[in-house]
Amino acid sequence: SHRRGPRADMVPEIAAAVGFVSGLLRTRGCVSEQQLQVFSGALREALTEHYKHHWFPEKPSKGSGYRCIRINQRMDPLVSRAAGHIGLGLPQLYRLLPRELTLWVDPYEVSYRIGEDGSICVLYEAAKPPSSYGGMLTCKNQMMLGRASPSKNYIMTVSS
């Protein structure tokens, strides 16, 4: 793929986040592989929908709080909704998942922390494009880029 500039899709970041949460459920052994697949699919769709208008590869930290998945005194609503698809209620989720979990899903980086003063671990990291790139991308350039090589992403964004 010779597309220059920031990658617009969220696929690897969301896959990393979903894989992490379903991995936590898997380690307890109470959830079948089939249930995990349903859960993963449901969570992937929920996150994709939730992040759709809150994803800024050129400003990766923008909207970070909105994309953050949290379990503390309350269960993250996106996680509990996905768990509902496989019949897991809140009591089970609280038993299966860490008491305190924060998962940051940002463009180019997914990281998590277990416990309020735990250390932050990076799950997924991609090379960010050089930041000087943002300066060169005027509206005009962007339109020319789009016309010259309409990438699949570009077409999808326009048609949705």
UniProtKB/TrEMBL annotation:
Example GO BP: negative regulation of cell population proliferation
GO cellular component: cytoplasm; nucleus
Top-level taxonomic group: Eukaryota
UniProt domain Anti-proliferative protein: residue ranges: 51-71, 97-116
PROSITE patterns: BTG_1, BTG_2
Coiled-coil intervals: none
Family statement drawn from the similarity comment of this UniProt entry: Belongs to the BTG family.
Protein's name according to its UniProt entry: BTG2 protein
Organism the protein comes from: Urocynchramus pylzowi
